[in-house]
């Protein structure tokens, strides 16, 4: 087996944190490298331990949202996964905008948590399907900069538009590949080009932009 996925857990509640540790540490390909209970702990651990994935509750003392932005800026190789009680759309959008790579609610199953950690470690992004659906149904999330990015959708090739259209439905790279009869590696290449052209950080932002354009077309 190759290198293990190195994970750090930041949560203010010791009992819940212990449960997350047990769930992840029980996987042969995952190693828990550190734990903490505050935003300061998250920033310190990200800098010192450099985990592949840092699981963070945004309710931690010192401001979890601030920690996301600092970690994204100072430790770009660390993928932050939010695991919290808050399903507020604004919190989800802000977490993703400031650099989080995934967002799960604390009612998630252990198997979904494990799968998400593995996905983030491979460079993918993930948001709980129910949260992603509610975000895509929002009437508008457009700012001036977002509107400019929506315009960049016209720069996509027909194939890239196909990939983005299927991505918007919440499918994984493997599922998109099956639908288009393409390899997962080819889909990853297309997604990289899509993110570059749209100037967004992750697949969730790209899907939201595509949804914004669809909404504007329907309403026009």
UniProtKB/TrEMBL annotation:
InterPro entries: CheY-like_superfamily, EvgA-like, NreC/VraR/RcsB-like_REC, Sig_transdc_resp-reg_C-effctor, Sig_transdc_resp-reg_receiver, Tscrpt_reg_LuxR_C. The keyword Ribosomal protein does not apply. One of its GO terms (molecular function) is DNA binding. PROSITE patterns: HTH_LUXR_1, HTH_LUXR_2, RESPONSE_REGULATORY. SMART domains: HTH_LUXR, REC. Residues 149-214 form the HTH luxR-type domain. CDD domains: LuxR_C_like, REC_NarL-like. The modification 4-aspartylphosphate is found at residue 57. The keyword Nucleus does not apply. GO terms for biological process: phosphorelay signal transduction system; regulation of DNA-templated transcription. Residues 6-121 form the Response regulatory domain. Keywords: DNA-binding, Phosphoprotein. This is DNA-binding response regulator. The lineage of its organism: Bacteria, Pseudomonadati, Pseudomonadota, Alphaproteobacteria, Hyphomicrobiales.
